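ok so I'm stuck.
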Amino acid sequence: MIRVRCISLKSLLVLITSLLVMTAIGSCQSAPDQKQLQGYFENTSQEDLQKTRWDTGDTTITNEDRLDLFRPHVLNRGGGYIGVGSSQNLSLAAWAGSEWVWLVDFTRIVVAVNKANLAFIQESPTPTEFRYFWQKENDTAALAVIRKHYAQAKDLAFILESFRKSRPYQLRRFRNDDIVTQKYNFALWLYDQKLYDHIRRLAIGGRIIARQGDIRGPITIKSVAHQAALMQVPIRTIYFSNAEEYFDLDGSFRENWLAIQGDKTALVVRTISVDRWDYPWAPGSELSTTRGFHYNIQSLGSYQSWLRSGPPGLRTRMILKTGTIDKANGFSQVSSLYRTTDAQVIP
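replied:
not stuck anymore, here's the structure
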């Protein structure tokens, strides 16, 4: 039998502090003005990351080919968005109509490439012009744009280096996206001018930031939660990719994501590549990789109930086991709150 984990005192204090911040903000007579909103957003803190074995060019693109499975569920949610990884977030944020976008990653190279992309977006009125900067023959123009936008940045040299390391993989991602969007008849952010315009408006307005951050780390996610609360912006879309499958959802991870304030519409979207027998891969999801992905959504309220009361050693697959699974399409969803009886069905 698995004992149910009681929330730690530290986690409880983090949660209470966040609720007090939200209560205090809610009692104010006026919402933050645009200058205050921008200030709060830009003041999001980040961790000082060290180089890892994941700081390679291939990690700067997604290998999830069926993001379209998330589209009807994230559509027009608005609010704030938090996502790990690179430009796949921009499709999700565009579909969601997110108004403030925090891009976080535990690899420095991914964060650097996200910064390069933000520069290219601002200089490119159309998706075609954006893709122009990734072509090898346009290297000089691309480097000039990066230098223009990050001339005073301490990490300028690293952004330039990261861009060049990422380029062959990004070109491959473009080719794969051309295939899957045609095969499954959907539009990513670079395949629909309206979607692109939304992302470009956010980028020009300074409403997308790239931050160094481990989703289990001590600074970045807690800072996102705090700044979003000050902004009075509910986080409505959270994208984990398949990051959760690598560790237990314990300790600082629980503290971080219990601090996030959403509303009843808030949604967690994720993928999982393990336990294929229980969670089949979506058709066509293995185009970019030898391992496909199962796609899952869960309400934030449900997820936080698991983090608050679930057993020690909690893993994503334990949560998914209590949801509804469409094995034919490699998709599942979880909406129920954690119950102590759920421990009885967890292997």
